[in-house]
Amino acid sequence: EKHERMNSTKYVKRTWEREYYAPKHGCDCCLYVDREVDLPFRYYYVPLSKALIVEKYSKQSYAESGNLVAVLIGTKFKTLEDTILNKIPRQTVFNIVHAAEFINVHKAKSDVKSLYIQLDEKYVHTQNTNRSPKMIKIAVIYTGKERVYHNRYKLKKRFVIASDESADTIRMKILHYINDTYNVDGIENVILSGDGAEWIENCKTIFKFNKYTNVIYILDKFHTHQAINHITKGDEYKQLLRDYLNHDMKKDFIVLCNFIIYSSPNRKEIIEEKRNYIIKNWNAIQRQKSKLNLGCSVEGHVSHVLAAKLTARPKGYSLKRLSQTVSIRSMYVNKVDIKESYLANNTDYVKSDKLIIKITDDRQPILNILNNRNSGLCHYIRKIS
Predict the structure, then answer these.
(1) Structure confidence at residue 35 (pLDDT)
(2) pLDDT at position 80, please?
(3) pLDDT at 46
(4) What gap in Å lies between CA 302 and CA 61, rounded to an integer?
(5) How far apart (Å, rounded) are the C-alpha atoms in residues 156 and 153?
(6) 305-316 CB burial, b ≥16 within 10 A, e <16
(7) Phi and psi for 244 in degrees, rounded to 5?
(8) Out of 60, 140, 295, 382, which residue is the most buried by the measure of CB atoms under 10 Å away?
(9) Residue 359 has what pLDDT?
(10) pLDDT tens for residues 96-114?
């Protein structure tokens, strides 16, 4: 009995038939061709196509990723009917993405005196058994900044780490990355910046890599100015509060906040909250004047790295789906070759794919060749599998 098998590559959709062997007694059935070439069950897309699907998903949705890759399969000029027939289902893309595994390649360590770490978080809606928002933590690690054009700068050796796990987990990921990338014994300054959250403040002692390392924690200016804008709507009061901050006049700052509360008793709760926030982080705000301070762009990273992919549309994620999406998105932002990293974990199947493509391109009947156990090709297959 002959069974048909279909497999799609980036360039062509190939179909062949092979014998289905079934013994007269027993149920140990076998497709000899599939076993020899080591083709997994329901293996409709080769790793090259799967790698491309995962790469597209780093920027697009499941449906759009499938559509973009489907257009590449076969002829590049398709009618609307061809496009619909060759469409890769959303569920197929979902399965490919969540089964993806990657291999990271580490580079040689480098020396650096000052290391910058920006930390923040983003809440993402979830579904199924956990409907409460899930906190996604993000860390931006870099060694400095350089001018690109006029007043435009870019971060040097930027690396982004995002995680939906605990604060301890992302701290360990940061430490592993720094230890694998830099010679930690030569790090003199670690400049932390963030919004003053408790899990960020607790990082101050973690990143003291040696007894000479000076860890500096700085509250970013965005949250500083945001707090002042919440305290008062009057421009004169805002300017006075900023002057008191800039000149380290804490008592005057508190007196003015209390006067604003007296003038606007209906806003007492929010004013007290933001006043206490600034007082708690007063020293971290004063460190904004440090020569080592290069500003904080973590809010922009939260917007472009996390929000653009996870919250641009109103939807919820399962916990497993969210974790894989965050991982793939981080690889894309860090300019990791997603296709190469994916294929590095699928080397055996890639060899089989190249072999089948060669046979198909030569227009040789694959059924007659692979069904012959004594053929030289079968010995070659067993050798490379």
Answers:
(1) 66
(2) 61
(3) 75
(4) 19
(5) 9
(6) bbeebbbeeeee
(7) -65, -40
(8) 140
(9) 40
(10) 888 888 776 556 788 999 9
Residue 88 near residue 329, CB atoms below 8 Å: no
Q: Output Rg (C-alpha) for the chain, integer angstroms.
A: 29
Question: Measured between alpha carbons, how far is 57 from 342 in angstroms, rounded to an integer?
Answer: 13
Q: Using 70 as the pLDDT threshold, list the residues of the chain that sit under it.
A: 1-21, 23-43, 74-86, 104-107, 128-131, 346-385
Give me the torsion for CA of 50, 56, 59, 63, rounded to 10°: -80
Phi, psi of 215 (to 5 degrees): -95, 120
The answer to whether the beta carbons of residues 169 and 163 sit under 8 Å apart is yes
CA-CA distance, 151 to 149, in Å (whole number)?
A: 6
**pLDDT tens across 17-41, in order?**
666 667 666 666 666 666 666 666 6
* Residue keyed to tokens 């004594």: 374
Beta-sheet pairing, 189-194 with 214-219: parallel
